[in-house]
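Repro:
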Amino acid sequence: MTVTTITDAQIAPKDYASDQEVRWCPGCGDYAILKAVQKACADMGLVRERTVFVSGIGCAARFPYYMSTYGFHTVHGRAPAIATGIKLANQSSTSG
């Protein structure tokens, strides 16, 4: 995955999309959630280099792969603990 630094004035939802092929089933609601989160990130002007998405297991857990931010794929039930650790270790990060 390539992460390119851009200015806040240029940020658009597509800038949060990674180069990975989305592999959810046709008609899955996760597509809408992904697009909504990418739009929300752009609307809030989140800095991609300081944003982390943490996931557990299952289809929705592929989420970090589809975002052009940092991501962490954890084991079942550990996502909240990992996200807390990321935030405690790096107060400037935006973890979700």
